[in-house]
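Proteins fold reproducibly. Next comes an illustrative record:
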Amino acid sequence: MKRLSSSVSNLLISSLLTILLVFPLLNVGMHGLAFAGGGQAYPNGAEAFMVGAAPPPGLTLVNYVYFYTADRIKNGSGHDAGTLDRLNVWAEVARLIWISKHKVLGANYGQHAFFMLANVDMDLKHPAGTRLKKHYRDTDVPYLIWSPCLLTWHLMSGKLHVVLDTADIYVPLYNEDTNNIASLGRNYWTIEPVLAVTWLPHVSWEFSAKFMYDFNSRQEDYQPGPPVKVDRTPGQEFHVDFNTSYAVSDGLRIGLSGYYYRQVKNDDYHNLGRFPALLKVMLKDMEREQSQVWALGPGIWYHKKNLVASLRSQWEFRARNKSQGGNAWFKLTYCF
C-alpha cells in the first residue's frame, strides 16, 4: 500500500511539474482571458462613452459585439510565458435596461439583464490539457447577468450623471467542460457592485468611469494542471473602465478609452492537506499568482434621436499572469 501511495504521489508531482514547465499559468475563463487567478467574469473595456448617463425612463436595448485577440501570455514578471500561439474571442451580448419613474433617494429605480453568446478559438505552442492538444475551441453561453437594483441620478443641470448598481449577479449555467482548456462554461457565481460616473464640465468635454469590485463563490474541481483537481475560491478583483471624449460636432465625439484590472486578493485553494508536500507547495505558490492589466485605445461615438452607436479599440500593456492583446467593441443602443 505504501509503495502504491508513493507511486500515485510521484505521478501527481510529475504531472504537475510537466504542466508547470510546458503550460504555465494558462486557464481560459470568460472571453478567453487567460489567467492565473481571479474569476475575471467581466469583459474589460465593455463600457466607455457616457457610461454614467443612464437612459430615460422606459425600455432600452443595448447590443455589444466584441472581438479580442492575443498571441502571448505574460507571467508574474511581465515576460512572455511562451505558451500561447494565438487566441481569438468573439462575443455577441444583448442587454435590456428598464428604468422606472419611481424615485429612491432622488434617483430613478431600474433593473437590467444581459444574455451572451461567445466563441473562443486558441492555438498553443505545446500540447496541453487532458486531451494533450495544441488547438482548442468552444462556443457557449457562459452565464446570465442580472441586477435587481439600478439607481440613476442626473445632477447639476445635466453636467453630472451617476449610476449605482448594487450588484450585477453573474449566474453560472454549470456547463464547464474541464477537458477543454477553452471552455467558456462556469460553475461558480460572481457578485459585482458597480458605480458609474459621467462628468460634463463643458459642452465639448466628457469624462466617464465605471468602477467595479468582484466577489466570487467557490469553484469546484478547478484544474490548475491535469490530473490535479482542487476546489478554489477565486480571488477578489477591482477593475475600472474609463473614457474621455471631445465633441467635434453635434452628436459626434472622438475619445480615448481604456481599463485597468487588478486581482487584489489571492485565490484560495481548499483541502490541500491531501496532496504530497511538494505538490502542496506548488499549489500554494499558484494561489499567490495575481493577475493585472492596463489598456488604452481610440474610439468614436455617434448620437441621433433615440439611437447611439460607438466603435472602439483598446490595446493591452503591463499584463501580469494574463494574456496581453487587443480588442474591438461595437455598441448600439436604442431607447424605445
